[in-house]
Inverse folding.
């Protein structure tokens, strides 16, 4: 594993993302870019493992991710510093600005909607990367219906469909993991 | 003092039980904050939600905001601790346990099984977010949505090729969408 950041470096990194990232889960991509691509504090594989656990556990995903990365880099102080850096700027701005900003002004509304659309773009890029990460984690690929990647992507499609149909999240996760486990066991017995 | 404890406990529970972020538990939050405790009105609740979408950091910034509206800065602090710090500490502990046991085959298998599930969840949320944010409030909303497709594809390409960083991309999209809506209003 590559050398992790100091507590101060980690705090500043979180403050940067917490103070400048808008809307949606494009932030997971920002963390990946920062932690893996820019600074090489973790490998892609280690990052996906951490992200998956953060998504699997209850609680705000991005806060889980930061708590996990923080504890990995600098123990419990790392988790606290990371969450403060990520969450405090937006929360403070919310409390300070809420009563002042003219939300109904059309120009402001469209500009902010564009910011949110930008975060949807980051989100979509991230989905593409995750799909490729899944392919990379499936090195042995027999032809046709024996291909494990096909089955794993099938589980993803099933969950996405069920999610669009409004299935409650605990069911999505419980059902999805149950189907996923069956797939993994089948993959193992075939290999 | 009781209101501070109420804020802490109510929002701590909401935060810890939220699989997949605030979006999934919004109806429960509203029931607690508006109907049960009458901390904010329905209109304030919706405004706080929309506002927090526009702020940096997690979308759940609306929760400390509600704490602030109810009980000033002490309310803000009580909510912040309940929503972020306590769950983060619990997650830090869980992660420590996970790291110790991660070599057990079943945990590894469960993690592999979880990966497509997360991909599906994120894919569906990405599509939902794109759809809601490409819904223009101006005239010719259909044209705006259609034009948002090449805009999105171009931005994805620009980001993947490294032409734009994440922050420049967000601001470029903000200005581009603002311009697009303005332009369609002229037609």
């Amino acid at each position: 594993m590559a050398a992790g950041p100091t507590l101060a470096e980690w705090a500043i990194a979180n403050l940067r993302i917490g103070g400048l990232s808008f809307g949606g889960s494009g932030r997971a991509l920002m963390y990946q870019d920062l932690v893996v691509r820019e600074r090489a504090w973790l490998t892609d594989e280690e990052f996906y493992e951490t992200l998956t656990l953060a998504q699997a556990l209850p609680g705000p995903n991005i806060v889980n991710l930061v708590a996990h990365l923080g504890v990995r880099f600098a123990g419990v102080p790392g988790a606290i510093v990371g969450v403060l850096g990520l969450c405090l700027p937006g929360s403070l701005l919310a409390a300070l600005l809420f009563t002042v900003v003219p939300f109904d002004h059309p120009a402001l509304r469209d500009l902010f909607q564009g910011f949110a659309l930008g975060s949807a773009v980051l989100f979509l890029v991230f989905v593409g990367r995750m799909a490729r990460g899944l392919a990379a984690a499936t090195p042995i690929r027999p032809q046709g219906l024996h291909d494990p990647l096909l089955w794993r992507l099938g589980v993803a499609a099933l969950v996405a469909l069920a999610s669009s149909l409004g299935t409650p999240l605990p069911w999505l996760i419980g059902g999805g993991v149950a189907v996923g486990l069956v797939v993994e066991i089948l993959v193992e017995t075939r290999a | 003092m009781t209101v501070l404890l109420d804020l802490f406990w109510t929002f701590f529970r909401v935060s810890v039980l939220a699989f997949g972020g605030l979006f999934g538990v919004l109806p429960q939050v509203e029931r607690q904050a508006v109907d049960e405790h009458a901390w904010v009105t329905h209109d304030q609740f919706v405004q706080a939600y929309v506002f927090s979408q526009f702020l940096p950091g997690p979308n759940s910034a609306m929760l400390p905001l509600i704490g602030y509206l109810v009980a000033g800065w002490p309310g803000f602090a009580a909510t912040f601790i309940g929503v972020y710090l306590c769950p983060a500490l619990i997650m830090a502990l869980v992660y420590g346990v996970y790291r110790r046991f991660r070599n057990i085959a079943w945990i590894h298998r469960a993690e592999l099984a979880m990966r497509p599930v997360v991909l599906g969840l994120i894919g569906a949320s990405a599509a939902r977010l794109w759809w809601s944010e490409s819904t223009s409030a101006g005239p010719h909303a259909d044209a705006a949505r259609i034009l948002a497709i090449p805009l999105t594809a171009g931005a994805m390409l620009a980001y993947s090729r490294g032409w734009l960083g994440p922050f420049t991309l967000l601001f470029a999209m903000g200005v581009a969408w603002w311009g697009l809506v303005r332009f369609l209003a002229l037609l």
